[in-house]
Design brief:
Elements (H helix, E strand, L loop, with lengths): L4 H14 L4 H8 L3 H11 L23 H11 L3 H24 L4 H19 L10 H15 L44
Helix pairs in contact: 1-2, 1-5, 2-3, 5-6
């Protein structure tokens, strides 16, 4: 792989294409538009996919030898682009998913494994879409939301579980992955000089 972030994204897209991922899944996973992925594949000379679940032949990428000076100039120009951010976000999402799976696997029963993974995935989804959510507008909606949370966290007297739940809290404050725009802004520290009166 080269030092150019766009080339890294193209290489990841090609690897996913060779694993028979669909184009919209590749685009969603890399955080780019599906037209961009289609344009990359067309530039690589890949034929369009056939409809249905028809497997295609994997493509071997032939990287031509690059001119070192041109590569250095191109690298300097692309360091400040959005592609580096997209690549880092993709890496962070992969690492976050791996951490969620590891926490779920440490649980004792299959039910606890499932509950812990779904709870962490739900919190991650909530964090990523917090801008699009509306708060409860009526007392009934607030009560239903409260009961839903209590039931799923095992806080109700009836139906509550006795297991201890562990959720990686870093997914709440965007320290591992931020899908752009920052759903939750980090806390700012303000220094105050004490008044000596």
């Amino acid at each position: 792989m080269s030092d150019n972030p766009k080339d890294d994204l193209k290489q990841r897209a090609l690897e996913m294409h060779n694993k028979n991922y669909k184009m919209n899944v590749i685009a969603r996973e890399l955080g780019v538009h599906s037209g961009t992925v289609r344009r990359w594949f067309k530039a690589m000379g890949l034929p369009p996919r056939k409809g249905g679940n028809v497997p295609h032949k994997p493509v071997v990428s032939d990287d031509p030898p690059d001119d070192q000076l041109a590569a250095d100039i191109d690298d300097e120009l692309n360091n400040m682009t959005n592609d580096a951010i997209l690549c880092a976000q993709h890496d962070a999402r992969k690492e976050e998913d791996q951490t969620m799976m590891e926490i779920a696997e440490r649980q004792s029963t299959p039910a606890d494994k499932y509950q812990h993974y779904i709870a962490a995935a739900g919190i991650k989804l909530l964090r990523d879409s917090v801008k699009n959510l509306r708060g409860p507008k009526t007392v009934r909606e607030l009560s239903e939301l409260d009961q839903l949370i209590r039931r799923n966290l095992g806080l109700n007297a009836k139906g509550g579980g006795a297991s201890s739940m562990q959720i990686d809290i870093s997914i709440l404050n965007n320290t591992k992955a931020d899908r752009g725009g920052g759903a939750i802004s980090p806390k700012k520290v303000i220094d105050i000089d004490p008044d000596n009166d």
